Give the backbone structure.
Amino acid sequence: MLIVGAAAGYCFAVSLRLSIAGLSVALALVVSQGLGIPTSHTLEALAFTALGGLLQAGFSLCVYAAGDRTEEGGAGGWDTRAALQALSANLTLGSTSARHALRFGSALAAGVAAYWLLGMREHGFWIPLTILFVLRPEEGETFHRLILRAVGTAIGLALATALSFWLNGDGVALAVALTVATAFAYGLLTVQYALFTAAITTYAVLLADTLGEPAWHAAGQRAVATAIGIVIAGAAFLLWSNPGERAGPVARPDPAR
């Protein structure tokens, strides 16, 4: 996780789009390494994972071809030479991207270690997951997201617990609630992070409820894991901040690349 996280964090040196690709790989590792899949089911799990990834990629390509490509124009395409130059130029500890890579990888590794050491095997992956979503190259943006994450999680936990008791195990009603929560989560992802967190928290707790786990237990595990993740992410910046970051604006890569 240290290596994969560092590589994902370093992708910010090139562009926002490449960083999202790196974060997706780190996210897959965060979730999958906590699943206790028997060795005999390895090929089956790999096939389902590959199929899901291909379906997501295919859907994204359809959306890109239908709308994003026309709006973007041809000037914002991928430039391999520029990407390599950016990676090479930022290969120094004075670079915000390089420092973020080491900070991000170390924090994710600490998050994974924390939930295994604490024995939180059911919902402990929310510790590194919190770190993955909130930790950014800039200190101000990171602490802003930490606050939004805390607020959104509290709202989502309260809403999910209330819905669980209200729906009282009604399968159809829970399916509708899960669908609505998922729709809101994806719809709000780029709109307001606190609302996205509230929606995805509602989904996670209700999903655990449908699998037979008491909602209050899942909510408690999620709350503890999120709190630990917030502490680790905040400590990562408090222990190793960016030199001179508050003296002026930080140059950011062109997100169109």
Notes: The chain has one domain: 2-247. Confidence is low (pLDDT under 50) at residues 247-257. The two ends are 26 Å apart (CA to CA).
